[in-house]
Amino acid sequence: MDTFMSLADGFAIALTWQNILLALLGCFLGTIMGALPGLGPSNGVAILIPLAFTLGLGATPSLILLTSVYYGAMYGGRISSILLNIPGDEPAMMTCLDGYPMAQKGMAGQALSLSGIASFVGAFFATWGLIFLAPQLVKIALLFGPAEYFALFALAFMTLGGVSSTNQAKSAFAAALGLGFAMIGVDTQTGVPRFTFGEVHLYDGLDFLVAIVGLFALSEVFIFLEHRHGDADGTASKIKVGRLTPPLSMLKQTTPTMIRSTLLGFLAGVLPGAGASLGSFIAYSFEKRLVDKDGKTFGKGDPRGVAAPEAGNNAAAGGALVPMLALGVPGSGTTAVLLAVLLSLNITPGPLLFSQNPDVVWGLIAALFIANFMLLAMNIPMVGLFTRVLMVPPRILMPVVAMVSFVGIYGISGSSFDLLVMVGFGMLGWILRKFDVPLVPIILGTLLGNAMENNLRRAITIDNGNWLTLVDSPLSITLWVIAIVGFILPLIIGRKVKSKMHARRDEEGSLAD
Amino acid sequence: MSDRIFGLVGLLIAIGFAFAALAIEESFLSDAVGPKAFPLIIATILGLSSIAIALKPDDAPTWPSLGRFAEILAAAVVMMLYAELLPVLGFVIATAFAAAYLTWRLGSGMVATVLTGVGTSVGIYVIFHLVLGLSLARGPLGF
């Protein structure tokens, strides 16, 4: 009952004109960013964070804006998958498989509206899942001491590579690199400068927003410069959208699919290191195995093959918010970026968030519900508008992305030094993407490095310098075991899943959701 | 081969990081762990993973041709120049040039280049500065 009271309070917070407008703006921008190939949810949110700050938005409004972008991008990704056979973002990869064949059969409109409904079902029920699961997780997390937190952070890093990276060594490398970046600056406990090389600008540490925008947004610009994707101009106009409502029989046929995929996607989202790409992948493969054993219809324009990945990826997007809000440990790229928002607003995510800032949590959850309905409205009747956006060629889009990134970062600090660091991170991001090193662990390391170190030092100081205190309680031992299994298991069984997933992967899709 | 070089460079970074960590001056007021321990753990992980990458390399990525590579470097240089010149030239002029350069290199024609450059710059100025009130770099001409 408490839950519903809190939710009602949340709606009271979310239903102000400012917040509704922000949610609307976020949904609109998010759908566009999801639809445009090369701009995924993590890019989209990353570019907008500095803007949200410089506009002086408070914690709840900023989060409402940015999570609306996040949900919106999850909806938008399918548009270019269906119309162009180019996934708008990585989670929408699986939607190409059946969405594009449907469009070729002249059923583009039906595919778009069906996938819109599937997205809604996935996101709507995942938000309910978030409401009920997050407080349970909080109860466990309240038992955590510094040693358990240290183990939890280690778990997040060790499982993050998990299913989405091809090479565990590279995930570990990325995590260590990110943690290393976090060490730059004055040590918070003793006040000695570390790794600053006498550069005064570095005493405050690297601003993780600079790192995020550089790694995500600028590296994308470099990737486009490398390939010069100018040739995708205006192909969207060739496909006729056709009728925009799916027939009732199709809805009936796909309802069980949506329910199954929502469940699977949500679970995939909650698990650390998985995220929406895995959600859509699992949902699609499971559905294919279940209803199309002989491989006759899937891949040739089966509506169920459109509904499954879309319900799956949107449910996973909601699921990924659970560990981020309840534990302060995000499981995917975009939730890592959202964590950066919380940290910059001086809000400590984790179990205390629910007791100290209930307005933020419940306002956000209510806003997610509102955003979902807005997105449903935007994505079915107004989908034509977004298909037109697809005709903006990258040669115009990418300079705008780069310049908006610069504006945002400059707006926060007003320093050229930060811009230089950002360009450096952009180059680094490009190189690492060439080597197939995942970028998300770097971001997570930069974000969580200091908290992880503080917990380590606190735990050991409390126990008078005894390092064994780290594995002293059943809870922390459990976390370490999960972490180690999570790191080793993909080495053994992961190769199969990965090679399947990567076989379908677009060359520019190397960012996790 | 690419991965072997990558691993080697990673190992060098890890060693450098470890030396830099050892060089941290400890203050007389320190906790039981001190400021060096965690960076040293990180350096170890960085080093071990680099060795693993070097020993078990993936397939080499497809590297761009020298021309494309120069293209990316040139864009990075332009962005750095942009960062340095932004406070000198002011937002509108600097951004117009930088955006024009990028769209030109991404394949726009002459007219489109000028239009995109000026359009991006003025568009951002109007939306972010005039409408939303964000403070942008002010040049000698006041914008």
TrEMBL record, chain A:
Keyword rRNA-binding recorded: no
Membrane spanning residue stretches: 20-39, 45-71, 111-134, 140-160, 172-188, 208-225, 263-286, 324-348, 360-380, 400-423, 435-453, 473-494
Domain DUF112: 20-444
Keywords from the named record: Membrane, Transmembrane, Transmembrane helix
Alphabetical list of Pfam families matching this protein: TctA
Protein name as it appears in the record: Putative tricarboxylic transport membrane protein
Species this chain originates from: Celeribacter baekdonensis
Automatic annotation (TrEMBL), chain B:
Keyword terms, alphabetized: Membrane, Transmembrane, Transmembrane helix
Superkingdom of origin organism: Bacteria
Transmembrane regions: 36-55, 76-104, 110-137
InterPro entries referenced in this protein's UniProt entry, alphabetically: DUF1468 (IPR009936)
Keyword Transmembrane helix on entry: yes
Keyword Transmembrane helix (UniProt): yes
DUF1468 domain span: 5-136
Name of this protein: Putative tricarboxylic transport membrane protein
Protein source organism: Celeribacter baekdonensis
